[in-house]
Amino acid sequence: MKNLYRLATQSLPLGSDLPLTASSLFVVDSNNSAVLFVASADSSDYGVFRVDRSGSTVAARLVSVPGEIVGLEHLALSDELCLATAAGEVMVVKLAGEDGGREPEEVTFCGGGLEAMGWSPEQEVVVTLNVVTMNSAYDPINEVSLQEDTFGDREFMSVGWGKKETQFHGSEGKGARTKKKDEPVEVDLRSLDRRVKIGWREDGELFVVGFLGPYGRAFKVFSKEGALQFTSEKCCGLEVALGWRPSGLWIATPQVLRDKYVVALFEKNGLKHREIELPFNRAEEAVEGLHWSNDSEVLIVRTFKTSSVKSCLYFYTIGNYHWYVKQYLEFDKRILGVQWDAKYSEGRTLHVLLENGQYEVSRWDFAVDHSTGQGRSDESLVAVIDGSQVLLTNFRGVVVPPPMCGFTLKSDRQINGVGFLRNPEGPWDSNCFFVVDSTNKITFYQPEFTEGTVRRLAGVKTLPKDLELGPGTFSHWLWLRNDLLIVADGSNFVKIFKIVETKLELQLSLEIGSPGDRIGCIESVSGNAALIELLTGQTFKLTLERGIGLEESTKLPEFCELLQVHPTGKVYSLRNRQNLYANGMKIASDVTSIFLTERYLLFTTIAELKFVDVANGDAIVGDRRVERGSKLVVVVPKAARTVFQLPRGNLEAITPRVLTLCLVVEHLDGLEYHKAFDILRKERINLNLMVDHKPGLFLENLDRFLEEITNVNWLNLFISDLQNQDVCREMYGSNYAGREVPAIDGYSVETKIEQLCDRFLVAMNKAESNEAYILPKITCYVKKGLLEQALQVIWDLKKAQRQEGAAEEALKYLLYLVEVNDLYNVALGMHETYYQRICASYGDHLRQNAKQTDASLMYEKAGDYAQAIASARNAVDWGRCLRLARLAGYADDELRRLVQALLPAVQEAGEYRAAARLAKEYLKNDRQAVEILLKDHLFEEALLEADRDLVDKVILSNLDEYLQTLIQKLQSEKEEFLKHKDRLLAVRVEKERRKAEPHHDEEDGRDVEDCDLYSDVSTVASSRHTSSSGRSGMSKDMDTLVEGTKFGDVKILIDGQRFLAYKGILSARSAVFAAMFNHPMEENTENCITINDVEPGVFKELLRYIYTDQLTCLETMAQKLYQAADKYDIQTLKSLCRCHILKKMSSETAADTLVLADMHGDKEMKSHALGFLSGSDAAKVTKSAGWKKMFRTHPYLVDETIEALTARKTVG
User: What CA–CA distance (Å, rounded) separates 340 from 325?
Assistant: First the structure.
């Protein structure tokens, strides 16, 4: 979205005595940009001349040279001039010291002659041709022949990946396969230019040499040591010019194709990447040079027109993968050379030497051309130059990413400038603009927009002022007002033109500063004044109100490429990508872009957007993160839209909170409450701002607020959001710095809610559509804590019966606002109808919170016996179920069905006696009652209930089975006891033996003071037993394998980390690894396993256990190790993790443990988890994060938990 402009220019004649030809060379002094060295190519007088443009511009001979000079370089460190002659001599001319200006000293000689010479950017390596690489001491490093038929050390094989014809792109791919390729023009090799060109990449690691090969022109890429790396692919039609982009991406060279002329861009490997199509053909204009700026932002294409004998410069930039022509310069004489200044302090300074001895120095920089109005009529129009067209986009209406646009304005000639009307008058507005073409013809335009909420750019209308300025070096075009145009002419002259119907009338031409000064910037101050800045940083104020006056203004600490003047007169200036100043005082550094609005100055750093309050001492009042490298394009006036251009060239639009609040304030001051509310709601800004901005104004216009906010939901949201605090001070202080609120009778922030609700109720009761405010009234009463009045509103609505269901909807809304417990307490003292409804709602609330017994009580009070019985059943309160069934008038059959349904739950709750009683008394089934008692081994009670037949058939058989089981259990426990007894005895004997040893040292072995507390199944104890000091030597040795990175026969890759392991050990410890390595699987044949579902740290601990039977991180990763052990079937580790998880189980972790057990089918862990949950405090468990997650993801486990809880209840 930026255009390229000439900031300053200086044109100097070097004198007619300087012998120049088409092959003359020049170079700028690397230490002093004002000094120029020119190599004469006159066959009768070879030599080097020195020119100092800061003093006399007459060229002075420095040295004479015995032959034609083919290479010229200034060496910064040694302050020497290095020359290469066609005869093969490489000479040095010392410029400083006593030897300065003496005859050149020959430092080396190349037999066979030289065609070119090129120094690396850091001037450590020099290349001469045939390709001879030397260091800065001129010692040879390597020599290579260009005609060798080899590709280079980096030769590769291309399989076509990346080309559209080899990919699946639908119609696009098919089109790429069938598209006819651009055919180059076949040329006779004998007619091609045989010159050789050398170019370096900016980092000095690689250089490129263009030459004429056996198939036409080509290039080769070498390392700085002179080793051949790459050779370009075969491309016919390549020409001599060559330029390597400093950032290293592309090597540029012209190419003639059959139907077009292009600049081909090659990658360093020699493959063609893309091309820039030139706006002319080879027969009319030929490319003579390609020159990249030092920051890689600008590519200059230098051409020569054979018909008119003129030289041209095309300035190209790239954005969002599109190449733009930003400037076009034409010279009457041939250009001998072009060079970008290497000094960073000089910015983008360009040196151009013409064949007639004219020397031009110009400084260039980028700027965004946009409309500058501050009203809603300004469409934030941005103009982008692209060759002979201007791309226009109005960002108030649309955000169109470049190179697309809202409208394209086309011209017959190349366009060099565009600008907007700065101080419009009459029928014109700030969207009007002008265009300057390459012949200095000025055309004025007025854009036309569509009607509607979103205005789009429909076209442009040419104003009756198509004016010619004539030849000249003009810059800094400023359309100050409708009838006045200011422009810089040459170095330090300003011309003021009055615009009349058909011509420009020159009012005055002023010289700014001294003859050696150069104008660097002109900026509008008002309709009658402008600010002019020189490259020295000195500014001048040009006034046009009563005559024309010029006076010195602020002296800036350094030259700033960008000036912006606030209506208050404050001047903000930016040194490109460096310092930001306010009236010459530094306020920020590392600034990349700025934009000035009515109240704030916005500026960006490398990754932040910051806001400076212009009216509050330039304090930074806000910031926010933006994408790295983003720069401001435009801020839409009277709106919050802020548009950035990202480094890739595409756009991003945001609405910063600081600017949004300014827009809201404007609406509030204008009593536009609907617009303000809509913005606050969309941007999630606290709604209290509508009151706190100006409380007095809001209270005076409360009726208007209700008239504009017709959406009841908006009104409810506003009242609900009211707070007894001043959000302007506490939340949005950056926009309200220094704010003072006048005292208001009867209003204070501490009682804001009560006072506003009272006023709202009064206003809503007066309104004609009173019923429309039912819900807002309820909200007001709730906000004041008057729940009884809120219920009364609903009761009155119910009695009125004007709208069916309105009272029920209002009650639902009230239940949404209020905690049901509080509402129930209030309803107790009110009408019975509402008491029952509140009880029913309260019951729903209790049931949802798993409080089934309390819910049953509430349902009973509400008269809903069905829900009351259902809740009692869920609570396994069988006595209450029966009582409620009688109250509900259940028949005998219904009662029996209820008891039959209750029996399984009562038994699961362990209440076997109660279940037997229910079976006997209500079902009249003695056999079922006896069988229930026997399930709990209640033989004595079963005998009392049974007759002789049941004793023989049921009780005796169950008793015999129970005795056999009991005997087996006792025998098993005896064997387990004896085993542990023997183990404990052996451990104690071993402890005594170790103590008796003469060299016993507790630190060398395991601490055995309490080792009899551990058995064979305890593989992990406290940290003192798992530390490296307490382990055997073999365990320590095996532990080193975990960290090993050199040995192993299988590689395991996890998230970019590599582990080396041994198949044998893994197979011995894990059945899964054994199956993997015992079968012809890919992991076995490739000796490489990729694991995606285990973290690197967990797998490392798993390996440690496999190798050493030891763990170090069980406390922190027990669950993850459990999952890994289950996956790889390592049962001992799984058992160990299970024990630890169950030992550490709490109300917070029990639900997670239950889910883990269920996922891995671990019945033992699941049983323990269910037992823990059923015996814990239900309130604590249900509030845990694990329980809430289980409720969403594993609802059936919640049911199982409730069943387990029910099974533990005793007979009530």
Answer: 18
